[in-house]
Amino acid sequence: MADERDLIEAEAHCDGPCGVYDPASARIAAEAVQSMTTKMLSLECPDTGDSAGMAAYLNTMSRYAAIKEDEAQKCKDELLVLWTDFFKPEHLESIPNLHDIFWNAAKLCSACKVEVSSVHAQELMDACEEIHSIFWGAKGRDDAWVRAS
After folding, report:
1. In whole angstroms, what is the distance from residue 17 CA to residue 12 CA?
2. Helices (H), the chain
3. 7-54 pLDDT, tens digit each
4. pTM for the complete prediction?
5. Could you tell me if residue 10 is inside a domain?
6. 89: helix, strand or coil
7. Is residue 16 part of a domain?
8. Are the C-beta atoms of residues 67 and 32 closer than 8 Å to each other?
9. What would the mean pLDDT of 115-121 be, rounded to a whole number?
10. Which residues contact 75 (CB under 8 A, 6 or more apart)?
């Protein structure tokens, strides 16, 4: 028999299940990905002989990249929670391409981490908007798609 000292504590979202789901957190993360992508593409590289300018440029670019990658992962994590915890087999009857929608959205999160692509960032936003509509439709609601930026 296991002693209390042998027990391992585990936490999870949301195998309780808590029943609290909302695609807004994925949207916010996707917006941050798009914002950082835009900033990265707009940042001008100074003359390579300008060491202070290059240091500032590289520092800013690396910060933007780190934020972009973190937010793309957050978006992916939030989408996966919706896909695997909220949606049930009965949803597939009314949304037969549900798995493809989420799989493609998760792949876009990965693409946004790997690349600096305004096209993929917009595609991720579009995928989040589609998931927003599907999610609220599954709950019998028609909540407006609203961006923070």
Report:
1. 10
2. 24-42, 51-81, 89-94, 98-114, 118-138
3. 666 444 555 567 789 999 999 999 999 999 999 999 999 999 999 999
4. 0.86
5. no
6. helix
7. no
8. yes
9. 98
10. 26, 29, 30, 33, 109, 124, 128
Whether residue 41 contacts residue 118, with contact meaning beta carbons closer than 8 Å, is answered with yes
Handedness of CA 95, 100, 102, 105 (dihedral sign): negative
Number of domains in the chain: 1
Q: How is residue 35 written in tokens?
A: 């914002």
Please tell me the total number of residues recorded for the chain in this structure.
149
State which residues form the domain around 35: 22-138
Q: What is the pLDDT of residue 15?
A: 55
Residue 49, both tokens: 């002989």
Q: Please give the Cα distance from 44 to 32 (Å, whole number).
A: 20
* Cα torsion through 58, 63, 67, 68, rounded to 10: -10
